Amino acid sequence: MHALIANRKQPAAPADMPACSEPVEIIRPLLPHVVHVRREGAVLHASPAVRDENVLSVNITLGCAQRCAFCCIRAQPFYPGDDVVYLFTNTAKLLKAELAGGRRKPRAVYVSPATDPFPPMAEVQAATAQVVDTVARHGVECWLMTRGYIRPSVLEVFAAHRDRVKVTVGLTTLDRRLQRLLEPLAAPPRLRLRQIAQLRARGIGVKVSLEPLIPGLTDTRSNLQDLLEALAERGVRHVSTSYLFMRSRIQDNLLPALAALGWDQPVLEAFAEGPILSSGGLAAARYLPKPRRQRGYASLMALGANYGITVSVCATTNPDFYTPKVPAPDSASQEPLFSRQSLAQARSSLS
Ligand code: SF4
């Protein structure tokens, strides 16, 4: 049996999170409760987001605090809802034993592909730092992606392992109002820019992902120009990107945010004729028509060139752009983002 410690107190925003001075009209939702869960057994598993058997992944939590309207994780059946995040408290300890054991070490560990490892919750960030420290001490690279604010204490852990830590920062827009609708509890975009500079200054590998592009909303010339200009000023020379894809639950979460901008119908219309595709690591989803995506990516590449920034397009979320080297597994047999054991543990903690 795993231990369960429920923390029903509303977590406060971290005191070291800088305030944003820009005017905001949108009320920030409350942070979810954190429920501590102990996991058992192997924690490393294949990553559906990475087509490399030498890259394994581990999730820090089940559930994510940041409530992005476009999020595919929030639309998954295992997602526990927006009011709770299950924090696996013994991940670092289990990882240590696993990495020291006889099995071949992975080339890299993708830390928390199914949740943001840096929500505005100190205890989750501390658990992430422990995991990064453990993995890096075993000579294995750590990959992380975030839309959050990384606390200074965690940055110090990264700096100590700067050769083995690679962080990708996700960005959609610098427009604060739009960002608050799309990513209500993620870090303000200007703070993410500052963080990119801080990571670079500490010699920590940092990449930038401009995604998801939402047709007519975040793929506009003005939105992308602002982003590219700000990134170029901070020395960024390459970005990756991908368009939004739709499933019915993603649509349910996204449409209220788009409706607040009067942009729900144009987005639905843009997707109406798009193909339904599945990719090696992702279940079937509706994509924008290929010519629409090609146009959008080409525009971003042309704009990027003006700022000395090259652009790559994500293969996983554009499966019709690439010829797979190996047949894609059928979606029913794909490795879940969370191991069955982790899911069972988290679910049983509800009872
Ligand atoms: S931060 Fe990532 S996992 Fe969390 S809600 Fe946003 S898109 Fe989803």
Number of strands: 14
Largest sheet, in brief, is: 8 strands, mixed
Which ranges are low-confidence, i.e. pLDDT below 50, for 5 or more consecutive residues?
1-25, 326-340
Instruction: Describe the strand arrangement of the main beta sheet, using strand numbers.
Output: 3-4-7-8-9-10-11-14
CATH topology-level name: TIM Barrel
Beta fraction of the residues?
A: 15-25%
Helix/sheet category: alpha/beta
N-to-C series of helices and strands:
EEEEEEHEHEHEHHEHEHHEEHEH
**Mean pLDDT across all amino acids:** 87
Any idea what the shape is? globular
What distance lies between the first and last C-alpha atoms, to the nearest angstrom?
13 Å
CATH class: Alpha Beta
Number of domains: 1
Task: Please report the number of helical segments.
Answer: 10
Helix content: 25-40%
Bound molecules: iron/sulfur cluster
Under CATH, the homologous superfamily reads Aldolase class I
In the CATH classification, which architecture applies?
Alpha-Beta Barrel
Give Rg in angstroms: 19 Å
